[in-house]
Write a structure and sequence with these properties.
46% of the residues lie in helices and 13% in strands. By secondary structure, the protein is α+β, with helices and mostly antiparallel strands. It is elongated, with a radius of gyration of 28 Å. The model has no long low-confidence stretch (mean pLDDT 83).
Length: 90
Amino acid sequence: MDIKDVENLAALSRIELGEDEKREILSDMDSILGYVKQIEAVEVDDVKTDYGMVNVWREDKIEPCEFSQDLITGQFPSAQDNFLKVKKIL
């Protein structure tokens, strides 16, 4: 990336930049692109730890949750006739 790329981006964005701002943005963009290259270099499948290779992904597990009306109304501060009572909001 060079100054011409920054000028092109500024023109597309319809913003005016001074020479100092262009150099600063160029420096920031180089830092960002360098960080992206670092991230791209990381292997996603396995991550090396002190304990060896570990898969960073886990399979989703479906765990049944039991929600009953009595359980929910019992945890709510106020209920009446199987309805949850809340403050009136205007």
